[in-house]
Specification:
Mannose-Binding Protein A, Chain A, mainly beta, amyloid, 5-stranded antiparallel β-sheet, 9-stranded mixed β-sheet, 58 strands, single chain, transmembrane, transmembrane helix, 27% strand
């Protein structure tokens, strides 16, 4: 093997070079530049064997033995020089044409540099010399054969060709360039458009490569080449999914129901309607939707035919679907006797669709001439009378008239069945009477029943209030003797001439004649019901006609009157204590009237939570104090009165409070309280932060005259520029420390306190300090406690605290909604807040 490869691949230059692809086992070796490549099947990778400046460097992807075959090392080249010369001379001799011409057969050649031959040799039977093979001999490979030349395997063919196993010729493989089909391997054809060898319709193909002939693609389901719309075909399997092979044109076309642009894209016999292929009359179909409008798909023969009811002409054969024929009477496709039907309209003249059998049959009384009892064509419940040749009703079954029934039976016209007739009550069972109108035994009034057919006279079968059983009772509008004869929720009402059953409250009605005299039929409801008229007694609003409500009047009697939100024009349209609200033109409760919700009160009033009365709200217009909500006062200025909150009442703004000079809305408690200087009796009368001293709301605590007080602490604002350390010293000299906000409530107070200040610096130092050991803490350098941790979520401004170096001190910014920020401790901010304990603490804030 070593001699074989050296002979083919070592040149006198010493370079590792392969002039053409060479097969070794299952691999093919070739050279691209100075890179040797090894290929197996469709996979290709590079062997790390390179030649540079006459030297060969070998990688590790191949064994040392394989590499020595392809890339002999430098040290071997000199010793092999003589061997190369000898081998090349022998190859030249052996490759020379024989006397008889023809191809040169591979022969065994001795490697003379590494062994000796058998001098005697042997002579083959054909007269050619055979050299005894030694340990270093090889099979000499002839030159590569070209296109359409004979071969036994692909290794004998030139690059780009494969050996066609069927034809034993070198030919182009898939995607190879071609001129005729003979250029391509047997399972491919020369595509006219691309001039490449491609797989034909039905052949296996690769989804990742374009290997099919033009106008075809590799089907993802079958893995075979399928034709596109309009491509040539022989069978349906040649066409892509959704297409059929049109036998007339031998091309792939859209099947019925497929999308189309014109009729040419549909299979023969089809048309393109609204971009969908539909089959014309008498052409093949599979489903109803395959046919044009007006036709149906006859599933017996799979052809588009006239459906039942379609117009036809006498004498036309096979134009109707299989279950119908062309009726000469109507010139329409109709179903004959004994065939399946859906409705009587489908059946031929003088026949009906039997509901029991769904077959076209002769109705009762119809002619059944030409049939026998064994071949009955009459509807269910009847049979063909042999004598009269007419379909007659079987006793106890369906009938049209008494003439359809046998003797002593009559036809119940309501139920259409033959029943035994009676002449008096003696012919009937207990609880039954002989109904003189129908001459049938029927259930008497108030007797149990299963349907209205069981009841005598004009009675019907109705459920009772208890829901246990149905009874024969009189419906509304029928004459009665007493209310027990009437249907539930109705009564025997006295009329002008006689008593009549009429509905009571909430009885379902059609007109007011169905209702008792004091009621009317309210047709404005989803289901019309009898309702009490205006002024008539009631128990609930549900009893009253639309637009009224059940209201207890001043005499404590409940009657139906115009209710809340009923339309009105004047106060007379509404029942007291309601008035006609001029703003909404609807009936609303007047002032001081009892209410449940504010929506019941007139415009400008609210329903007080405690009193449940309609009264004026805070800031509502008023004439005197009683009109205002409890605790409020009616303040009149310049002839206009408004309800204002008194001290301690809830408020939203200062405008809600009674005296703008003495009362203000405390932002902490949202109550009206005395401002600074206002009169007071206890601390709670004053705004948060103030104290009641000498009946006057004042600031201050021991040592801090202008301080505000909250929760046992004093707070004093300083508008003096300071660094944080200097601010700490100033507070310590005053007996306190920089403010430390311990709770959310305290933070809310600080905000409220600052809102009341006439001078409010933008940035104010707090006792907030950061260190890597403790994080953000409260720092008191001149107190015994020194530090304390934060006890609630701090309201940092967006993007803070900043992690810039040395920004370790925190402050409060009034211009940023009192949020917290951090800065360098040496920065001079415009102010700070001092805090200390209130030794005289007595407030209850």
């Amino acid at each position: 093997m070593a001699s074989q490869l050296r002979l083919l691949h070592i040149l006198t230059t010493g370079l590792c070079l392969i002039s053409s692809p060479v097969f070794l086992g299952q691999f093919q070796y070739s050279v691209s530049g100075n890179i040797i490549k090894r290929q197996a099947s469709q996979d290709e990778w590079t062997v790390k064997c390179k030649v540079h400046e006459g030297k060969v460097s070998c990688g590790t992807e191949m064994s040392t033995e394989d590499l020595s075959f392809l890339c002999p090392c430098d040290s071997e080249l000199k010793s092999l020089a003589a061997e190369v010369a000898v081998l090349q001379e022998q190859v030249s001799k052996l490759m020379a044409p024989t006397e008889g011409g023809g191809e040169v057969e591979p022969q065994k050649l001795e490697d003379k540099t590494n062994g000796s031959s058998d001098e005697s040799g042997d002579t083959a039977g054909n007269g050619e010399t055979s050299i005894d093979p030694g340990p270093n001999t090889m099979e000499v490979m002839g030159p590569k054969v070209g296109l359409k030349e004979r071969c036994s395997n692909t290794s004998e063919c030139q690059s780009g060709l494969v050996c066609d196993s069927a034809m034993r010729e070198c030919r182009r493989g898939a995607n190879g360039q071609c001129s005729t089909n003979h250029d391509c391997v047997s399972d491919t054809t020369c595509d006219i458009e691309s001039r490449e060898c491609r797989y034909g319709l039905g052949s296996s193909c690769s989804l990742t490569l374009e290997q099919c002939i033009s106008h075809a693609a590799c089907d993802t389901v079958t893995g075979t080449c399928k034709g596109h719309l309009g491509s040539h075909c022989n069978v349906d399997a040649n066409c892509a999914n959704g297409l059929l092979c049109d036998s007339a044109s031998a091309t792939c076309k859209q099947k019925p129901g497929g999308h189309c642009k014109d009729e040419m894209e549909c299979v023969s016999g089809g048309s393109c309607e609204e971009n969908v292929c539909k089959m014309k009359f008498n052409n093949r179909c599979e489903t109803l939707s395959d046919c044009q409008v007006g036709y149906v798909c006859d599933r017996e023969v799979h052809l588009c035919k006239y459906g039942v009811g379609h117009q036809c002409f006498t004498g036309q054969q096979s134009v109707c679907e299989h279950r119908a024929i062309c009726d000469s009477y109507s010139n329409r496709c109709l179903v004959p006797l004994g065939y399946r039907c859906i409705s009587s309209e489908e059946c031929m003249h003088d026949s009906v669709c039997d509901k029991e059998t769904s077959l076209c049959s002769v109705p009762i009384g119809g002619s059944c001439r030409g049939t026998t009892t064994a071949n009955n064509v009459c509807v269910t419940g009847s049979e063909c009378d042999v004598t009269s040749q007419i379909c007659r009703t079987v006793p106890g079954v369906q009938c049209m008239s008494t003439s359809d029934c046998k003797a002593e039976y009559i036809c119940d016209t309501a139920r259409k069945v033959c029943v035994r007739m009676c002449s008096d009550d003696n012919h009937c069972d207990e609880e039954q009477v002989c109904d003189q109108l129908s001459r049938q035994c029927k259930t008497a009034l108030r007797g149990t029943c299963s349907s209205s057919y069981d009841c005598s006279g004009r009675a019907g079968c109705f459920p009772q209030n208890d829901g246990l059983e149905n009874r024969c009772l009189l419906p509304v509008g029928e004459q009665c003797k007493d209310s027990s004869e009437c249907v539930w929720n109705s009564k025997c009402d006295i009329g002008l001439d006689h008593k009549t059953c009429r509905g009571m409250v909430n009885f379902t009605c059609q007109t007011s004649n169905d209702c008792a005299a004091d009621l009317e039929c309210d047709t404005r409801l989803l289901v019309s019901r009898c309702k009490a008229k205006r002024g008539n007694p009631c128990e609930t609003n549900f009893d009253c006609v639309t637009g009224t409500a059940c209201i207890k009047n001043e005499y404590q009697v409940r009657t139906c009157e115009r209710g809340f939100n009923a339309s009105c024009q004047s106060f007379t349209d509404c029942t007291r204590p309601m008035i006609c609200d001029p703003q909404t033109a609807t009936c609303k409760l007047n002032i001081k009237a009892k209410c449940e919700t504010t929506s019941q009160c007139s415009t400008g009033y609210v329903c007080a939570d405690v009193e449940k009365e309609c009264i004026r709200p805070i800031n509502g217009k008023c004439g005197d104090d009683p009109e205002c909500i409890r605790g409020a006062t009616c303040m009149v200025k310049q002839g206009l009165g408004f309800c204002k909150a008194q001290k301690g009442m809830a408020c939203s703004t200062d405008f809600d409070c009674a005296d703008l000079h003495n009362l203000t809305c405390d932002p902490m408690t949202k109550q009206c309280r005395r401002a600074l200087g206002g009169s007071c009796e206890v601390d709670r009368d004053c705004m948060t932060g103030f104290r009641c001293r000498d009946n006057s709301c004042r600031t201050g605590c021991p040592g801090w005259a202008d301080a505000m007080v909250y929760g046992g602490h004093c707070y004093l604002l300083h508008a003096i520029p300071r660094a944080q350390a200097s601010a700490q010293e100033d507070c310590a000299h005053l007996g306190g420390h920089l403010v430390a906000i311990e709770t959310q409530e305290e933070d809310n107070f600080i905000r409220a306190m600052l809102m009341l200040q006439s001078i409010r610096p933008g940035s104010l130092w707090m006792a907030l300090y950061y260190s890597e050991e403790t994080g953000w803490t409260w720092w008191y350098p001149y107190t015994s406690s020194q530090t304390s941790r934060l006890s609630f979520r701090p309201p940092w401004y967006d993007g803070y605290p900043s992690h810039v170096e040395d920004m370790n001190c925190g402050y409060l910014d009034t211009s940023r909604d009192y949020a917290w920020l951090n800065a360098r401790c040496r920065d001079r901010l415009p102010g700070f807040i001092c805090e200390k304990s209130d030794e005289s603490h007595s407030d209850t804030y």
